[in-house]
Amino acid sequence: MRLLRTLSLAIGSWCALGLTTPHAADFHSVAPRYAIMYDAPTKKGRKLHIALANTPVEVLFTSGDWVRVRNSTGDLSWMSSDSLHPRRTLVVEVDEATVRASENESAPVVFTAERWVVLDLAEPIRSGWIKVRHRDGETGFIKASEVWGD
């Protein structure tokens, strides 16, 4: 009972601060321009870096007009929520990823993508393969283990 009361107080304090947490991994991308990443949820905070347009980020929680995010390298920062776009993107994490015509190792190669290339999520994720779209319009399937943002 004591543990339950402590947990309730902690959750109540969290909510009173206006912080909410997503129920599952909540991925978005940086809006079509760029986003300034801060060390605190205020424009008076220290500017850490700039995230380029379409970069995928994982939203950890929200505080008012600010979101705490994690990037593909694990860095944490704050950004204005109006710098988020609901569009889902993925970033290649291996030196060179092969995108295939179907969800199969022996399927023909459509294209390859080098580390840090950003791809659009073309369909909801269903298996160990993800259907992606390159900005030039080519689509295919990539192994989930080769990208971040899923």
Description:
The protein contains 1 helix and 15 strands, in the order H-E-E-E-E-E-E-E-E-E-E-E-E-E-E-E. It has 150 residues and is mainly beta. The protein folds into 2 domains: 21-87, Roll (SH3 type barrels); 90-148, SH3 Domains (SH3 type barrels, Roll), CATH 2.30.30. The longest helix is centred in the N-terminal third of the chain and has 15 residues, at 2-16. It starts with a helix and ends with a strand. The model is unreliable at 1-23 (pLDDT under 50).
Order of helices and strands: HEEEEEEEEEEEEEEE
Low-confidence stretches: 1-23
- Biggest sheet: strands, sense, closure? 6 strands, antiparallel
* Level-2 CATH architecture of the largest domain: Roll
Note the total helix count.
1
The structural domain count equals: 2
Count every beta strand, where a strand is a DSSP E run of 2 or more residues: 15
Gyration radius over CA: 18 Å
CATH topology of the largest domain: SH3 type barrels
Give me a quick take on this structure.
With 150 residues, the protein is mostly beta strands. The chain has one helix spanning 2-16; strands at 19-20, 26-30, 34-38, 47-52, 56-63, 66-70, 76-80, 84-85, 89-92, 96-100, 109-114, 118-121, 129-133, 139-143, 147-148.
Topology:
Blueprint: H1 2-16, E1 19-20, E2 26-30, E3 34-38, E4 47-52, E5 56-63, E6 66-70, E7 76-80, E8 84-85, E9 89-92, E10 96-100, E11 109-114, E12 118-121, E13 129-133, E14 139-143, E15 147-148
Antiparallel strand pairs: 1-5, 2-5, 2-8, 3-4, 5-6, 6-7, 9-12, 9-15, 10-11, 12-13, 13-14
